[in-house]
Every structure is written in C-alpha cells, then in structure tokens.
Design brief:
Length: 177
C-alpha cells in the first residue's frame, strides 16, 4: 500500500484552503510557534498536539505557507529523517492533508495513522522537487478515525557542492473530528 508520487495518490496538489478539502476541518498552521530558529518542541493548536519524535526540527517564522512552519536540514551527505506525531489528547480525529516543502530535493514521505495501537493506514510516496515551494499532499485514507498520526519526511542525499544545508519541512496539517 502506498504511492510513488503524491499526485498518483491524491490528484494534483491543491491549496489547503480548498473548501472541499477543509469542510469541517481544522488547519494546524503553527501560528503560535516560538522564536525563529528555535528548536521545535510540543506545539498545541486548536485542540491538537504536534510533537517531534525524530530529527532536528526548528521553527521558521520568516517563511511558510503562510509563515510560520517547521523544518529540519541536512548538512551532510547522508539522508536525514524528521518525524512528528499528531494527536488530540486521546480523542479521535481524521487527517486530510499536509503541505510539504523542500528547497532543492524531492520529498519522500510516510503517513501512518493509528487508532489506539492498531495501525489503520500507511501511505508512502515522494513529492517531486518543489523548487522551494510547498506542495499539498492529501491523505487518500482521510475517512479513517485516528488517535495518533505520524508524519515522517526524508531529506535525501547526496549533498551536491554548494547545496547544503537543504531544508525540508511541513505546514498546514489539516485534521478534523
């Protein structure tokens, strides 16, 4: 189960403000995120919690879709993985979409949804190079009820001379109850 390209999973990227996408949904946009360049820690917004599990995540308040957003960088010639967990304090929710970003690389991603400890979906794909823009990736399993969502992004190598560090990040996690 999974997709090679985001477009193969969900059609062309669309804006998270698309009314069909957000009807009855909430967008976690990191609006109260901390100081630019600070380490990303637990973030609470609209009854949801986002916390880093893996990777050197930082807050960027000078850029986003719209600003702010969270990102991690790869400074060496090895893949770097960043993972965040989303939950609603034990309440069930649905995951519709997320905006993904990379400066100069494609973006391999994995979405895993869990209802308690039982995995209810796993979606894997790669967003082609966005050339410094955001791409909205929809979850083809958006009707599934979850208690935990994992979003895992890979910042792929190789590091071409003059292209490191490369930032990869996310913004606008669209969820609903």
């Amino acid at each position: 189960m999974g997709c090679v390209l985001a477009a193969a999973c969900s059609g062309p990227p669309t804006s998270p403000s698309d009314p069909v996408l957000v009807a009855g949904m909430t967008t976690i946009g990191f609006n109260s995120a901390a100081v630019n360049g600070s380490n990303f820690a637990i973030h609470r917004e609209s009854g949801y919690v986002v916390q880093p599990l893996d990777g050197p995540w930082v807050v960027v308040t000078t850029f986003g879709h719209p600003a702010p957003f969270i990102q991690f960088t790869r400074t060496a010639s090895t893949d770097t993985v960043g993972e965040v967990q989303v939950f609603a304090d034990g309440a069930g929710f649905r995951f519709s979409a997320v905006d993904l970003y990379s400066s100069i690389t494609p973006i391999p991603y994995v979405f895993e949804g869990y209802l308690r400890e039982q995995r209810v979906f796993r979606v894997a794909g790669t967003v082609p190079n966005t050339f410094g823009n955001f791409a909205t990736v929809r979850n083809p399993n958006g009707e599934n009820l979850l208690t935990t969502l994992l979003i895992r992004l890979t910042n792929p190598s190789p590091c071409i001379i003059g292209t490191c560090p490369n930032p990869v990040g996310l913004d606008n996690i669209v969820v609903g109850r």
